């Protein structure tokens, strides 16, 4: 059986993309601007060994499958086809397809590409979410290359959801708007002390220092991030107000901060550790202080926090876990925070990812030279898939504002002044 015929049996004969394979067979819409290309028989080994998303990811990252044209468009069109129940082959049909592929694909095992994280290697650094293992997984994701991140993220070097006033807004203006939204929710004032946990490349502490005269400390487990941020702070003449340290948030001294921002860290700490996480931040705040927690969430509280064997955990965020917004709000509240505001920025993250994808495509050759084609492919696939995830409400992005009361005084205006 030729591969185009198998493709048609799995997704139907009217697939809205082009398909071609190494055996010369073709299928799909010949006029489509995107194409799925099976380059070598090794792709079938990967798909037989791990049917579904994992096998496809391995084959794509290793270069045995290609996507021509816009990755997001290809993924959206294929997902639309797969989601149609009428296109799902029966068990008997799947058995016939497996037989046509040949037994050799079942016995000739091929190793995953080197970009896939082996759980056994992580075990060597301690139990999940221990300090040593957290440092290992953060370095896996964030110490890829500062130069690579500059190509993808642009001048702001901000790897979290931006806030857009229109879909046409520039990424830089949207990232400024996000940092300023956080600053206004926290009611930053000159002379305050801000702690930004999981600070990345220091965008929030630099914004707080530059725009509000705040003394900001950012902490990150990525040494490359800390080194880059420290150099940028020096370049901008903000060293008297802002600093970034390479350290675990759990090691920051207690009780000396007026405000805390946590932008994109909660996803890394593990569901079981979230109560202690919020309790630790609570002790670091002065009475009357505020915490703004900004993180990716599950749409429902009853969904699992992680998929240990999923593509994201294997290739992008090892040990990553997502909670529902209600769970996070409850745990903040149980710690002692009074919840004063919460909002979902799901659509904004889809817009942010679109601009990151465009940056990567525009700088593709330079990115490949910097980190290698396999790693660049991981990012192309991961970010395009995340656009779909946010658009289709598979994941969300919530900001939750809590106050550590001074007695019964929250020091909040009668109506929010940041919406």
Automatic annotation (TrEMBL):
CDD domains: AdoMet_MTases. It comes from Haloactinospora alba. Belongs to the CFA/CMAS family. PANTHER family: CYCLOPROPANE-FATTY-ACYL-PHOSPHOLIPID SYNTHASE. It comes from the Bacteria. InterPro entries: CFA/CMAS, CMAS, SAM-dependent_MTases_sf. GO terms for biological process: lipid biosynthetic process; methylation. This is Cyclopropane-fatty-acyl-phospholipid synthase. The active site is at 386. One of its GO terms (molecular function) is methyltransferase activity. Keywords: Lipid metabolism, Methyltransferase, S-adenosyl-L-methionine, Transferase.
């Amino acid at each position: 059986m030729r591969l185009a015929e198998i493709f048609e049996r799995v997704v139907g004969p009217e697939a809205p993309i082009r398909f071609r394979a190494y055996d010369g067979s073709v299928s799909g819409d010949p006029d489509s601007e995107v194409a799925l290309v099976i380059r070598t028989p090794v792709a079938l080994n990967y798909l037989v060994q791990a049917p579904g998303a994992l096998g496809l990811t391995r084959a794509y990252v290793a270069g045995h499958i290609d996507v021509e044209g816009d990755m997001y468009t290809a993924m959206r069109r294929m997902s639309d086809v797969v989601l149609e129940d009428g296109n799902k082959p029966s068990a008997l049909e799947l058995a016939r397809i497996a037989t046509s592929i040949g037994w050799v694909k079942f016995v000739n095992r091929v190793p995953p590409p080197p970009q896939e994280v082996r759980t056994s290697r992580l075990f060597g650094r301690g139990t999940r979410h221990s300090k040593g293992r957290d440092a290992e997984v953060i370095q896996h994701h964030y110490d890829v290359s500062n130069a690579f991140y500059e190509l993808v993220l642009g001048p702001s070097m901000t790897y979290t959801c931006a806030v857009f006033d229109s879909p046409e807004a520039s990424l830089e203006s949207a990232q400024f708007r996000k940092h300023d939204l956080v600053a206004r929710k926290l009611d930053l004032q000159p002379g305050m002390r801000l702690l930004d946990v999981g600070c990345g490349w220091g965008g929030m502490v630099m914004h707080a220092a530059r725009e509000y005269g705040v003394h900001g400390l950012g902490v990150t487990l990525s040494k490359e991030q800390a080194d880059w941020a420290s150099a940028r702070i020096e370049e901008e003449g903000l060293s008297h107000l802002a600093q970034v340290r390479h350290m675990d948030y759990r090691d920051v001294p207690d009780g000396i901060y007026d405000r805390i921002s946590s932008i994109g860290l909660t996803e890394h700490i593990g569901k079981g550790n979230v109560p202690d996480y919020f309790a630790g931040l609570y002790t670091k705040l002065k009475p009357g202080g505020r915490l703004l927690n900004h993180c990716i969430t599950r749409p429902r509280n009853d969904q699992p926090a992680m998929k240990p064997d999923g593509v994201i955990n294997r290739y992008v965020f090892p040990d990553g876990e997502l909670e529902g917004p209600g769970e996070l709000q409850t745990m903040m509240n149980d710690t002692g925070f009074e919840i004063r505001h919460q909002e979902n920025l799901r659509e904004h993250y889809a817009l942010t990812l679109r601009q990151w994808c465009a940056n990567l495509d525009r700088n593709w050759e330079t990115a490949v030279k910097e980190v290698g084609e396999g790693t660049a492919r991981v990012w192309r696939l991961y970010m395009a898939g995340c656009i779909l995830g946010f658009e289709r409400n598979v994941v969300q992005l919530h900001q939750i504002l809590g106050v550590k009361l001074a007695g019964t005084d929250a020091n909040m205006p009668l109506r929010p002044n940041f919406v």
